[in-house]
Amino acid sequence: MGRAIGAVIAGAVVWAVLWLGFNAVLPSMIPEIYVLGERLDHVPVLLGLIAYSVVLSVLAGYVTAAVRGGPDPMGAVKALAALQLTFGIIAEVSSWDLLPVWYHVVFLALVVPATIYGGRLKARG
Predict the structure, then answer these.
(1) How far apart, in whole angstroms, are the C-alpha atoms of residue 55 and residue 118?
(2) Domains held by the chain: number
(3) How far apart are CA 42 and CA 32, in angstroms?
(4) Which of 111, 69, 108, 84 is closest to 11 using CA atoms?
């Protein structure tokens, strides 16, 4: 049980550190488009953020499965997916007015399947 909890924490930390790090440097990369605390409607940037979140979710699922190990790490991966969805809902609600509704919906809709996919990649590999 301890290894499963550690695996979920590892996956969540990987996702959070990479997401927060990227969002910390993004304003300096495109300061005319991405300003922290201001509304973002630039579709290419929004699509890029969604793509990045999918990559991170796949990576987090993979890391979780790798740390969990064993013949069936998917329980830990599913727990991570549920945790990520919960954190995602909180984050999206807190930034509701800063982003278009379609972004929130797509972001949340992809978190669970991308995380599960990452776990399955490792479990099958």
Answers:
(1) 9
(2) 1
(3) 11
(4) 84
Tell me how far apart the alpha carbons of residues 110 and 46 are, in angstroms, rounded to a whole number. 14
Q: What is the residue-wise DSSP string for the chain?
A: -HHHHHHHHHHHHHHHHHHHHHHHHHHHHSTTT--TTS----HHHHHHHHHHHHHHHHHHHHHHHHHH-SS-THHHHHHHHHHHHHHHHHHHHHTGGGS-HHHHHHHHHHHHHHHHHHHHHHHH-
Distance CA 30, CA 44 (A): 12
Other Cβ atoms less than 10 A from the Cβ of 19: the count is 17
Mean pLDDT, contiguous 10-residue spans, the chain (125 residues): 92 98 94 93 97 98 96 95 97 96 98 98 89
**Which residues does 56 contact at the CB level (< 8 Å), separation at least 6?**
14, 15, 18, 19
Range of the domain at 64: 2-124
How many degrees, rounded to 5, is the angle at CA 99 between CA 95 and CA 100?
135
